[in-house]
Design goal:
The chain is mainly α. The protein has one domain. Helix content is 78%, strand content 0%. Helix 1 packs across helix 8 and helix 5 packs parallel to helix 9. The protein is elongated. The two termini are 21 Å apart. Keywords: Membrane, Transmembrane, Transmembrane helix.
């Protein structure tokens, strides 16, 4: 079982490493957001908050964005494999579909983590600082859980689709509201009740809030509450994804 999961995990990492354009291109949007929002809205945030640094608030949200986009689109590999016949060969092999799902989920989550770490490193160039090693460790846990949740979500949706372009449209329809309503770019306090309610049911909200609490000391709901929520959601979505993947037809 472990060998199967490792091979599928390694295959996705090799695909990622060989696609240099994908690696470099996926950094453009997070870097643009950090520069445009960080320096554009920074002075307004500083005045409104009484001197707080907006980059300290923004960086965890942009790291989460990078993980989110990379993780959900890992589902494209399922559709790609289906179109080129690799998925069919995998499904008829003497291995369980749960092992295939776990291998693909860990592979996609690892790639998303790498993207997040690269963006986190770039944020240092723009003035963001992490208090200490312990804070970084807790932040990495939240990054991993965000990656697991959204990789599982992407694979679950991809398992029911055959059209690559349709998958991209559905994912864009889902992830843009998930990102913008998560509090990644703006504080959740003093929001209109309707927007605040939507933010509270947004899974990314708890990942962003937990990571921000760990890396910048700014948490609305509390780190342990965020950790419990995003952990439970990650387990739940992976269980749903495993069920849907078990019903997949190549």
């Amino acid at each position: 079982m472990i060998e199967v999961i490792y091979i599928l995990w390694l295959r996705q990492l090799k695909h990622y490493w060989r696609s240099k354009a994908r690696l470099i291109g996926s950094l453009g949007q997070p870097l643009l957001f950090m520069v445009a929002f960080g320096f554009g809205f920074g002075p307004m945030y500083t005045r409104a908050s009484g001197g707080a640094n907006y980059m300290d608030f923004l960086a965890p949200g942009i790291v989460s964005m990078s993980i989110l986009f990379t993780a959900v689109f890992s589902g494209l590999e399922v559709i790609w494999d289906r179109q080129f016949g690799f998925l069919k060969e995998t499904l008829v092999a003497p291995i369980s579909r749960t092992e295939i799902m776990v291998g693909k989920t860990l592979g996609g989550a690892t790639i998303a983590m790498v993207q997040g770490l690269i963006v986190l490193s770039l944020s240092y160039m723009l003035g963001f600082r992490i208090p200490g090693i312990g804070s970084l460790g807790i932040g990495l846990i939240f990054m991993f859980l965000i990656a697991i949740f959204f990789t599982g979500l992407g694979l679950a949706i991809a398992s029911k689709m055959t059209d690559m372009h349709g998958f991209q449209l559905i994912m864009n329809f889902l992830i843009m509201p998930i990102f913008f309503l998560s509090g990644a770019l703006f504080p959740l306090e003093n929001l209109p009740p309707a927007i605040y309610f939507i933010s509270r049911i947004d899974p990314l909200t708890y990942g962003v809030d937990g990571m921000r609490g760990a890396l910048a000391g700014m948490s609305v709901f509390g780190i342990y509450s965020d950790l419990a929520t995003i952990s439970a959601l990650s387990v739940f979505v992976c269980m749903i994804g495993a069920f849907l993947f078990s019903k997949i037809e190549a």
